[in-house]
Amino acid sequence: MTHLHELTATEIVQAIHGGRTTAVAVAEACLLHIESRDADVQAWEYLDPGLVLEQARALDRAGGKGALQGVPVGLKDIIDTADMPTALGTPIHAGRRPTIDAACTALTRRAGGIIMGKTVTTEFANRFPGKSRNPHDVTRTPGGSSSGSGAAVGASMVPLAVGTQTTASTIRPASFCGCVGYVPSRGDIRTFGVMEAAASFDTVGLIARSVEDINLFRNVLIGTPPAALPEVAINEARIGFARTGFWNECDEDTKAFLEGFAKTLAADGAAVSDVAMPVALDEVQEAHRWVSSFEFVRNRTFEIDHHWERISSALRGGRIQDGMDCSFELYGESRETLRRCAALLDDVFKDYDVLLTPAVAGEAPVGLTSTGNASFSTLWTALNIPAVTLPLHRGPNGMPVGLQFVSRRYADRMLLGIARAVSRKHG
Amino acid sequence: MTHLHELTATEIVQAIHGGRTTAVAVAEACLLHIESRDADVQAWEYLDPGLVLEQARALDRAGGKGALQGVPVGLKDIIDTADMPTALGTPIHAGRRPTIDAACTALTRRAGGIIMGKTVTTEFANRFPGKSRNPHDVTRTPGGSSSGSGAAVGASMVPLAVGTQTTASTIRPASFCGCVGYVPSRGDIRTFGVMEAAASFDTVGLIARSVEDINLFRNVLIGTPPAALPEVAINEARIGFARTGFWNECDEDTKAFLEGFAKTLAADGAAVSDVAMPVALDEVQEAHRWVSSFEFVRNRTFEIDHHWERISSALRGGRIQDGMDCSFELYGESRETLRRCAALLDDVFKDYDVLLTPAVAGEAPVGLTSTGNASFSTLWTALNIPAVTLPLHRGPNGMPVGLQFVSRRYADRMLLGIARAVSRKHG
Predict the structure, then answer these.
(1) Among the four A194, A326, B20, B198, which has the fewest Cβ within 10 Å?
(2) Position A2 pLDDT exceeds 90
(3) What's the CATH number where A281 sits?
(4) Is B65 an active-site residue?
(5) Are residues B200 and B118 in the same domain?
(6) Geometric angle at alpha carbon A145, from A143 and A148, rounded to 5°
(7) Is A422 part of a structural domain of the chain?
């Protein structure tokens, strides 16, 4: 028998709509499971069981038929909540109390979702780690910056969590924690009430344990009625295998898995071929670095000027130094590079529906001082296209390793349709 | 003798750097002038003279050489301030206290600017008017949504104010109030801490009494060192006269002024010709309507669900209804329309450095129940290009009427260079 906390969001909603369980029962099961695991995993920055049960009781009393009726949801702690603190991963803002729900918070509540609590993030959603650990091996990082969101879903504490991605901050923790992670086309989901890191790239990302759940949650956060994904047959898909310039940073095991999976998809009948990525796309990594740093450092002016000593030296010497070093001219040139590269990538997608590409270098690294290699998402995030990671592999130590599919901008439903078809067959 | 409150920001900085006046003297002069005028004009949502003088005294003690040293600045009340409330133009959020300065607030302070207070805005920076009146005739609107920012600068209460523009919210109040108004290329100035209305268009806008001041403030808010504008000769400028599809909404007086001004520029030696705007650009207005409404309504989910009865019926029946009526498909098609139209407009700029175009239909209308016709900025805002309005005309009732120059995206310095040359010759 599956425990309530192990159900997907889709299963919870069906069970509640069908009268077979209640929001309170689900919330209690998740709270109990969190109690048993969170001393080790430390996914939560803020969690008030009383507030959770209050929401659940109100939902049961109202008896609504929301698209997320009674589904517990974790929110990265850079997403504002009117009834919980939002501390942005820094002691500077410990206890900060917004008075307005972020758009994604409020849309989750409107659909009947329960805001379970706030999940741990790195400092200002950048690199300096929070306290969370990987639920599959607590000596390892869960990835970042949506560290607690990945860990909480990976540990079956909640079926859904919201993260964000400015570089690799959703795809990486989802991959490391054995989850499905999804980054929409930038702009599809509103960022009101989500801390701006670098607006040229900031995207609300979703973490779940199934592609169906991603689709369910996506519709809620876009603010549209529920809609099933298109049925996509693997054998009609045109799939490009994009090793990218970072291929040699992948573990041998990850390389072998991806090479093998490309062959598997071909055996499924998909048209799979190696992609010759335009060499100019190699410039994207550097352009992303300058644009994101330029924007980030100006967005943090208040903390730099008033709380410099409470910013980590890693952030001061990293992103902040980069942002201070970047002139407006370099920022402008870098934006122009990205504009040109986006057009080149559009051309690549004339021949492919999706690209198969690494999500991470391999298993989550041992140690909690780094959130791992972020290179495998930068290209796609920088060019604002959608991405999904599927937990279809285990590495040599039994840790989850995700693969990644990406598609052209705004082709999210097709991308998720293919991801679902692949999950059904190989998940 | 010019009174201190009538100085431009550039003049104030020079006087303070040169030891000829102090931040306290300037602040006191502005406060005194505000006291004499604001009962009529009502530009300020929040103004605490004690807090203003405290900032001024600290600046004088420190004796810095900031780019805005001692310059009083008004901030539209959707821009967060850590030491003042930010109420977003709605009683729902009266007394709301952010704990972090917006990027533009903090950058202003870093440069030695004094945050004078918060200026009145319309409800959620949309259409429903706040209490402000036009300083040139208090029976007339100052325009909106940066109503108080336009009124405060137009009344010489402060030399600089920050507004925002999602449709026409900086150019229109600047024009109605006799100010220079500037909307940068979208993305150049960070929006962290500025209420998101519709991120596809939201732009921080500046209001001042000279183009030099706009340039000074622009560099501060971009976060770059001071830099003089390029010297641009009018007789080397290629100027397109773009009446646009809204020409017939202009007053006869405004039409005559613009027709005459195009001839004046030609007489100055500029290459001036009528622009044949691509007919497809007529679709922009409708696309902007859907995109901005789709985004706005989702960003206001919290207030719609928890404070519906405190939202004006104008907003409920207008922007909110539009946003609820707009499907994700229509939103997507409208974004695609804008993408196509931006490319068409790029082509127009192959032949022109700037376009001369109406800023407003004419003088600010009598009455305070509407902020006036917003049509003349929508095209440019929707396509994310920079715009500047110059107060070079008075209408039949002696009220200011601005003209507008726009240029290609990211050509802001050239645009401001031309605007300065035109101001010097005809201002």
Answers:
(1) B20
(2) no
(3) 3.90.1300.10
(4) no
(5) yes
(6) 70
(7) yes
CA distance B105 to chain A (A): 8
Structural contact between residues A195 and A166, judged by C-beta atoms closer than 8 angstroms: no
Facing B328 at nearest CB: one of A99, A192, A224: A224
Element (H, E) at B323: helix B321-325
DSSP structure class, residue A318: I
Average pLDDT over residues B254-280: 97
**Is A2 inside a domain boundary?**
no
Residues B299 and B218 in one domain: no
How many domains does chain B contain in total? 2
The β-bridge relationship of strands A271-274 and A203-208 is unpaired
Query: For the residues B260-264, what does the mean pLDDT come to?
Result: 98
Q: B29 and B177: one domain?
A: yes
Nearest to A202 by CA among A384, A19, A392: A384
B74 shares a domain with B157: yes
Write out the H or E segment, with its range, that includes residue B235: none
Cα B355 from chain centroid?
18
Alpha-carbon gap, residue A172 to A168, rounded angstroms: 6
Count CA atoms within 13 Å of residue A376 on its CB side.
35
- Is B425 an active-site residue? no
Residue B137 near residue B224, CB atoms below 8 Å: no
Closest chain B CA to residue A101: B302
Looking at residue B144, its amino acid is: G
The number of C-beta contacts closer than 8 angstroms across A and B is 98
**What mean pLDDT, rounded, does chain B reach?**
97
* Domain limits for position B168: 4-222
| Secondary structure of residue A17 in the 3-state scheme | helix
Task: Report the residue of A75, A79, A100 to disrupt the B interface, i.e. the one with the largest count of B CBs within 10 Å.
Answer: A100
Percent of chain B with pLDDT over 70: 100
B301/A223 Cβ within 8 A: yes
User: Contacts of residue B327 in chain A, CB cutoff 8 Å?
Assistant: 224
Q: Are strands A400-407 and A387-394 parallel, antiparallel or unpaired?
A: antiparallel
